[in-house]
């Protein structure tokens, strides 16, 4: 398991305004924070930039981003500066070179964008020698490969630069997934095969199911009785976590609780026990799971509505990382929506609209009589087939009249 600094979720939320990681972002960021060379293959729109921007903010020193087009760089630069990241570029159209160089040397930059022809030059290398570099991010990394659709010979000159800073992790990013290109990028940029991470939002081995809450302790006990492997139950509060853990331990399964309010030693011990276990049930707040790599989690259950579809996807996605069949169960009730509305009402008005949209999207997920996976994947910009054959609605199509009007009623109220 890779360590993940506890401030990472806070930065993700406070700096970037995202409720959670998407898809493999968490995995990529974990690797980078642990200093490991990585090639991330993620579809367009999957959120590649965050994979280096977040470590750039979290790590001491500057992240050097190599990007092939000035227009692309300047788009990203503006977006980064808009959320308060200290970012600059060194291109032919930038007038403030001296200032940028000073900021780099003074440790006053999180992100520096350069083109490959600049990055590979001796002058730039001299500059880097006088600065603290946290990360090299090679965007559009398929440009390094003659197999790729956009070969740029200048990308081939990057390797000596990367190798001169052996302690600085390198992260290559591209949306091009064909395996010749992929293998070539690994070789050209000196990234070990185990550093290859391929996204795609679908998790076909996870069976999704949604249930109206109706005597939750019994529902969860039944669920656990039908499962043999390790599982995580996400509960909404610390108190609920401990209470549920106690109730569920009566099923005879080893059960522990995890939340940020526990004594750090107890927390670490519970986490270690879970990672080593083949049948433990961990009842946790969403503080649990970040950066924990346990491939054989067989089920994830949510005792209440999560905060967003991103959160749900991320949390449920901790099941079945080994590719074997796994289950995701979401229990919800009308009171979850009532509580969400109350919580939103107390927020800064600027944030209310976004939060309301998140809850509405969740309403769509729990209410639907159609494929759950299709709803999740469409939320992430994919274009899935209408039925997956591996969710509750596909396996047991509900009667065509929609019996669950509760969510809608609470949303429109
Ligand atoms: P890519 O480079 O992979 O095509 P970008 O980095 O441009 O994707 O990100 C695509 C969009 O996804 C951006 O609008 C970005 O703000 C958004 N995004 C990235 N990460 C997240 C996240 N964890 N949650 C929500 N939105 C995200
Ligand atoms: Mg930094």
UniProtKB/TrEMBL annotation:
Membrane-spanning segments: none
Record flagged with keyword Phosphoprotein: no
Cofactor dependency: Zn(2+); Mg(2+)
Listed GO MF terms: 3'-5' DNA helicase activity; ATP binding; DNA binding; four-way junction helicase activity; hydrolase activity; metal ion binding
The UniProt record lists the keyword DNA-binding: yes
A single BP term in Gene Ontology: DNA replication
Residue stretches making up the Helicase C-terminal domain: 219-363
Helicase ATP-binding domain boundaries: 29-195
GO cellular component: bacterial nucleoid; cytoplasm; replisome
Enzyme class name: isomerase
Keyword terms, alphabetized: ATP-binding, DNA damage, DNA recombination, DNA repair, DNA-binding, Helicase, Hydrolase, Isomerase, Metal-binding, Nucleotide-binding, Zinc
EC numbers, comma separated: 5.6.2.4
Family: Belongs to the helicase family. RecQ subfamily.
Protein name: DNA helicase RecQ
Origin species: Sphingobium fuliginis (strain ATCC 27551)
Gene name tied to this protein: recQ
């Amino acid at each position: 398991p890779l360590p993940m600094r506890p401030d990472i979720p806070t930065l993700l939320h406070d700096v970037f305004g995202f409720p959670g990681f998407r898809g493999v972002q968490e995995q990529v960021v974990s690797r980078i924070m642990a200093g490991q060379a990585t090639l991330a293959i993620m579809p367009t729109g999957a959120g590649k930039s965050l994979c280096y921007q977040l470590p750039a903010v979290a790590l001491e020193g500057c992240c050097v981003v190599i990007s092939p087009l000035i227009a692309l760089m300047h788009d990203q630069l503006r977006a980064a500066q808009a959320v308060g990241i200290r970012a600059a570029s060194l291109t032919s159209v930038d007038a403030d070179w001296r200032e940028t160089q000073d900021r780099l040397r003074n440790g006053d930059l999180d992100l520096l964008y350069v083109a490959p022809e600049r990055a590979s030059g001796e002058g730039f290398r001299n500059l880097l020698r006088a600065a603290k570099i946290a990360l090299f991010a090679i965007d559009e990394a398929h440009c390094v490969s003659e197999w790729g659709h956009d070969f740029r010979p200048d990308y081939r000159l990057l390797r000596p630069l990367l190798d001169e800073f052996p302690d600085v992790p390198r992260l290559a990013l591209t949306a091009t997934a064909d395996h010749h290109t992929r293998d070539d990028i690994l070789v050209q940029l000196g990234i070990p095969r185990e550093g290859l991470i391929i996204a795609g939002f679908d998790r076909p081995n996870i069976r999704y199911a949604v249930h109206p809450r109706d005597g939750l302790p019994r529902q969860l006990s039944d669920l656990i009785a039908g499962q043999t492997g390790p599982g995580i139950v996400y509960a909404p509060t610390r108190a609920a976590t401990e209470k549920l853990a106690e109730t569920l331990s009566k099923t005879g399964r080893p059960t522990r609780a995890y939340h940020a309010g526990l004594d750090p030693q107890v927390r670490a011990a519970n986490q270690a026990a879970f990672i080593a276990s083949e049948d433990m049930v961990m009842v946790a707040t969403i503080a649990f799971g970040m950066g924990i790599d346990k491939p054989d989690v067989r089920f994830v259950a949510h005792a209440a509505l999560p905060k967003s579809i991103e959160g749900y996807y991320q949390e449920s996605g901790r099941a079945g990382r080994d590719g074997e069949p796994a289950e995701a169960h979401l229990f919800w009730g009308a009171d979850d929506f009532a509580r969400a509305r109350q919580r939103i009402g107390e927020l800064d008005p600027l944030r209310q609209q976004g939060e309301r949209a998140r809850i509405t999207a969740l309403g769509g997920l729990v209410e639907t009589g159609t494929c759950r996976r299709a709803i999740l994947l469409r939320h992430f910009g994919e274009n899935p087939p209408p039925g997956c054959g591996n969710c509750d609605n596909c396996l047991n199509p509900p009667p065509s009249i929609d019996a669950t009007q509760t969510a809608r009623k609470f949303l429109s109220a």
